[in-house]
Amino acid sequence: MQWFVNLMEELGIECLVGHPAEIRAAEPRKQKHDRRDADLLLSLLVEERFPAIWLPTKELLDLRALLRHRHQWVRLQAMYVKFETEIETLNQRVQQQAGERPAARLLMTHPGVGPITALATEVFLGDPSRFAGGKELASYVGMIPGEHSSGKRQRLGGLTKQGNPLLRFLWSEAGIHAVRRDPELKHFYRRKLIQKGLGKARAAVARKLGIRMWIMLRDGIEYPEFCRRGQMQRKSGDACAGMPERRYGAKVTG
Q: Tens digits of per-residue pLDDT, 217-244?
């Protein structure tokens, strides 16, 4: 009924709300129907015995809402502090596990790759030799474009995202940091940014970084050795640095 009380207040009409228990106590008879209740209310009003309860004004109601809203955010802030503590505990456990695993330590030598990305890449990819190449890896993670082709017309859509969403997220986040520290990735990102726009450029960097980490796992090499091999490939005119060759490993079987 609050909307009606507010309307009465805006119109300057006094609105009284009675105390139900005291009104009922004013009528000793047990019979109850609408007409007798109306007569009782009228009698109490005429005799100035109407037991009205106190009602806050619209201004006070708004201030109450303000205080309640503020209190809710204070409670959320307390929960946020608790969540931060839990997250920090989990971060320490992940860092400890990553530091104890040689493959994760190897991946952390790449600029922009931290313990969470390194550990997730190792444990979710598993045996790197089961991927025949970068395309198979990207397909496994869901970082290849969807295709809707008919006849001779080929139409490519957005990423299929038919893979591990956590890996895609972590590779994307790590890619943002990697482009700031790796000159080749920075050049690649800027070129894709001009050609394809921000979203596709970030996806391309994430995919390239993921393939790099897979090669490092597959060959058991750290970032400096990866860069050295890339320079040798560029000098010899072979495939682009960081791109695997078909002779490594077997095709993905599942």
A: 999 999 999 999 988 888 776 544 444 4
Same domain, 176 and 206: yes
Range of the domain at 151: 102-236
Cα–Cα distance measured from residue 82 to residue 25, given in angstroms and rounded to the nearest whole number: 51
Return the residue matching tokens 């050295």: 228
| 194 and 169 co-located in one domain | yes
Identify any residues that bridge with 153 across adjacent strands, giving them in sequence order.
150
Which phi and psi angles does 52 have, rounded to 5°? -80, 140
Q: State how many domains the chain has.
A: 3
pTM for the model stands at 0.63
> Where do runs of H (alpha helix) occur along 101-128?
102-107, 115-125
- Per-residue H/E/C for 145-169: EEECCECCECCEEEECCCCCHHHHH
Residue closest to 210 by CA, chosen among 131, 151, 155, 153 = 131
